[in-house]
Amino acid sequence: MSMLKVVIHNIAKLSTRGTPNRSRSAGTKLLLSSEETAEGMFLPKARAFCNSTDLSKNEAEVIKHENICRETGKARTIFDFKSYMLQKIKSVNQALDAAVPVREPIKFHEAMRYSLLSAGKRVCPVLCIAACELVGGQESMAMPAACGMEMIHAMCMMHDDLPCMDNDDLRRGKLSHHKVYGENVTVLAGYSLVALAFEHMATATNGVHPKTMVRAVGELARLIGPEGAAAGQVLDLLCGGKSDGGLEVLDYIHRHKTADFAEAATIVGAMLGGASDEEINRLRKFSQCLGLLFQVVDDILDVTKSSEQLGKTAGKDLLANKLTYPKMIGIDKSKEYAQNLSIEAKEQLVGFDPEKAAPLLAMADFILNRQK
């Protein structure tokens, strides 16, 4: 074994010594040494060696999932995902409030703001910003697109709850949009938000080359359109009340209906940040796994949590006899599938700057472990 391999193994042992039973997650535990000597001497070599072709699988996994450089007895620096999300959500909410002010017709703009500004996870806009920052861009470059993503997401929720779709009375702990404003206004406010999403993205984005902007707009339109999220929604409706569609059909529905939204947010953000084609391809795989993970967990929560815990009607998929992962493969297999999707998503981020990748890695953990 080479001297460099010995060094890597020794650091790996130091990183786990004294805490053998402590579970760790690559998504939330970015291990950084506070000692300049360890940071300067070992971490660059470990990363370089991890990228070489002769590194064994076990050694690569150690570096990949732990970022192991630290000194015995030193406290680890853990990425604070909660603070990160609160800060990003605050920025997104402020930008959304400014993007859709109350103007004439006042009642209609209030209707547009009702679902758009309701309390939510803001997963899509945060994905957009985090992907932009991952490849060297700035939050300001991605914010108009991030707002556009949330406008489109709000429209989907508004329309999903309509009687002709999922027929739900609750959303995010409040009355669904059509229960407050009527079905006709919900339809009009929804497609107005989609139009505004593209207008805002095209006119408010600064610091991005026009060709890149056109490419990003086209990518977003493709992923929410008839070959993207809309295709998944249509097949979901066609399969309504039929539970014999098979796992392949279920995967198709959610890889489009849900995962294409995560892909759109991530890829658009990466494009605006100046990502290379290779980076875009890897982030495409990451976001597809992440989006599908979100849906698998959603299906699990639908049958394990109450309406009060979820902030929306629980058990409605079961009552509607819809295709879900727990119905197709059971709760335990669904949880195992979710775990595997989380791991696969994280693997796509190996090789990116660990500090910049930390929000996306943590997002995978957040989605996997969410309770509503």
Q: What features would you describe in this structure?
A:
The protein contains 20 helices and two strands. It has helices spanning 3-16, 36-41, 43-50, 57-66, 81-99, 106-116, 123-134, 139-160, 177-181, 183-204, 210-224, 229-238, 247-257, 259-272, 277-304, 307-310, 316-319, 325-329, 331-347, 354-369; strands at residues 170-171, 174-175. A two-stranded antiparallel ribbon has the order 1-2. The longest helix has 28 residues, at 277-304. It is globular and about 45 Å long. The termini are far apart. The model is unreliable at 1-76 (pLDDT under 50). Pathway: Isoprenoid biosynthesis. Pfam families: polyprenyl_synt. Its cofactor is Mg(2+). Keywords: Isoprene biosynthesis, Magnesium, Metal-binding, Transferase.
Could you say which structural class the secondary elements and strand pairing correspond to? mainly alpha
Strand order in the largest sheet:
1-2
- In total, the number of strands is 2
Q: What does the average pLDDT come to?
A: 81
**Fraction of residues in H or I helices:** 55-70%
Any idea what the radius of gyration is? Answer: 22 Å
| Beta-strand content | under 5%
Order of helices and strands: HHHHHHHHEEHHHHHHHHHHHH
Main beta sheet: 2 strands, antiparallel
Distance between the termini: 48 Å
Poorly predicted ranges (pLDDT <50, ≥5 residues)?
Answer: 1-76
Pathway: Isoprenoid biosynthesis
Family: Belongs to the FPP/GGPP synthase family.
Keywords: Isoprene biosynthesis, Magnesium, Metal-binding, Transferase
InterPro entries: Isoprenoid_synthase_dom_sf, Polyprenyl_synt, Polyprenyl_synt_CS, Prenyl_diphosphate_synthase
